[in-house]
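# nightly structure sweep
# worker-07 picked up a monomer target from the shared queue
# config: single-sequence mode, recycle default, output format = structure tokens
# input follows
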Amino acid sequence: MIRTLVLIALMIPASLPAQEAEPHMTLSRMAEIVQALDPDARVAGSGFEFTIDDIPVLIVTDVRANRMRAMVPIRSTDGMTDAELLRVMQANFDSALDARYAIANDSLWGVFIHPFAELEKNQFISGVAQTVNVAKTYGTLYSGGAAQFGAGDSGDLQRALIEELLDRGQEI
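# output follows
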């Protein structure tokens, strides 16, 4: 196996063009991206506050720790049932994608967390969109908005809803 890999590596031309790397994320670069997403965005220290589809988005950064997080509030945790908590955990496994449901300070949040410097523009935009989507689809599809991991529970639960609605429609 190792010999095969070495032979394949030797067959790859040394003159392949290098993929041009995107520059490291900076606060000013992130501000430009955020302003493009929402011209009314506000800078708050090393973070940002803006709105996407009527959903408030908060970005918190720590450049020294090389971390960032996008957060959207979803609801209070007061009154969340065990079934609701289980459902958000299932979605974290298969349908929330790069966003996640999280609980802090008695609130349920949608969050996207990533190393700051390595974050590329399209990853950032996708992460924000997925975070907004998990907030918008809470209580229904619990989805980040694109494909989902097929080995989880969400696909069966979503199909069960479709089948239930089709059954209800049979009597019409």
